[in-house]
Specification:
- The N terminus is likely disordered.
- Helix 6 packs parallel to helix 7 and helix 7 runs parallel beside helix 8.
- The protein is of the alpha/beta class.
- It folds into 2 domains: 150 residues, Endonuclease Chain A (Endonuclease, Chain A), CATH 3.30.870.10; 135 residues, Endonuclease, Chain A, CATH 3.30.870.
- Strands 1, 2, 3, 4, 5, 6, 7 and 13 form an 8-stranded mixed beta sheet that branches.
- Strand 5 and strand 6 form a beta hairpin.
- The protein is built from 10 helices and 18 strands.
Length: 356
């Protein structure tokens, strides 16, 4: 005797298989987009960009007061996850915040490239002032992020370290001054995602977040850079410290080859040393990209502006380690005021830079 389920034979059977297939696809999609290995986000797509509740300040124009004042005005908490921390006035502001009962936490990269002031000594100094301070997570080759969270309501997503060179050069002796861009973001979804990343790194666990506007290494940075560059139709403006990843270099060259007007500003090589970006410069120039090197400021910025409509700002360099192995944090923005500032500053730097 036939089971009632199969009474209508081929049509009913086909329908059952179709439903089962849909369920399998749905389950598989859910697993891909929410698995711990990719931070709980769909790494195959990027956001349309944060707008509203977001602003940008530019260094060295703004100076360190943007950071020290923000810390001084915090009511409950100041959390910092950063690669370099040596600016004396920022350190003093953090110490004063802890002294007035604010929850101050600092994660500092213990082994920054090129050395510099001892991170261990800085951590000891912070701990002595009552700050909860610890080295960054050993899960990453480097923690190159430059992030700060105030009162669980505002996230600073920056290209700037907390150093004299990055913040306008107003504390300490002589030296170079950087071009930097720093985003202040009060969009709740962005802030909660940055908090989730901070807590995971603080506790040495996998970060779980759901915000396609965040660009996070080693989670989705490579895809975000590639997708953003590939989406360009008319213009592509890039300021970067490094040009050392063949995949991104090819994407930039391909944009120029399909008719996009591509302009790239990189740092001028220091002293008589060879230009570490020379090979990457060769690749993108061969594709028709216009390249200049800034001799007025040290180009530490990391921005990609597409068609004047959407931009990346963050800690990621165009390098394989930065995209695939470090902890990095950036954001995609579509706010018109932010985009105007990025474009105007880029054009000023372009006029100050030398053709390569």
């Amino acid at each position: 005797m036939k089971h009632p389920l199969f009474a209508h034979k081929p049509g009913r059977i086909a329908l059952i298989f179709f439903v089962v297939l849909l369920l399998l696809v749905a389950c598989n999609t859910s697993t891909i987009s929410m698995s711990p290995g990719n931070g709980g986000i769909d790494t195959t797509s990027i956001g349309s960009g944060t707008q509203g509740g977001v602003q940008v300040f530019v260094e060295p124009d703004a100076g360190e007061s943007m950071i020290t004042s923000a810390i001084a005005n915090a009511k409950k908490s100041v959390w910092v996850e950063i690669y370099l921390l040596s600016d004396r006035n920022v350190i003093r502001a953090l110490e004063e915040a802890a002294n007035r009962g604010i929850d101050v936490r600092v994660m500092l990269e213990p082994h920054p490239f090129g050395g510099g002031p001892s991170p261990t000594r800085t951590l000891d100094q912070l701990q002595a002032a009552g700050i909860k301070a610890q080295p960054t997570s050993p899960s990453f080759a480097l923690t190159h992020e430059k992030g700060m969270i105030l009162d669980s309501q505002t996230a600073f997503i920056m290209t700037s370290n907390f150093t004299r060179a990055a913040l306008g050069g107003s504390s300490g002796g002589g030296g170079v001054t950087n071009r930097e861009y720093d985003i202040i973001d009060s969009n709740p979804q962005d802030v909660q995602a940055v908090i989730a990343i901070f807590n995971a790194d603080w506790n040495h666990t996998d970060a779980q977040f759901n915000d396609s506007n965040l660009v996070v290494s080693p989670v989705n940075s490579r895809n975000a850079f590639t997708s953003l560059i590939n989406s360009a139709h008319s213009t592509l403006l890039i300021e970067a410290e490094e040009m050392n990843d063949s995949g991104i270099e090819q994407a930039i060259a391909s944009a120029a080859q399909r008719g996009v007007h591509v302009q790239v500003i990189l740092p001028t090589p220091s002293g008589s040393s060879a230009d570490s970006n020379s090979q990457g410069i060769g690749v993108i120039k061969q594709g028709g990209v216009q390249v200049r090197e800034d001799s007025l400021l040290y180009m530490h910025a990391k921005i990609i502006v597409v068609d004047g409509q959407r931009a990346f700002v963050g800690s990621e360099n165009i390098s394989t380690q930065s995209l695939d192995k470090n902890r990095e944090l950036g954001i995609i923005v579509s706010d018109s005021n932010v985009l105007t500032t990025l474009e105007q500053t880029f054009q000023r730097d372009w006029s100050d830079s030398q053709i390569v």
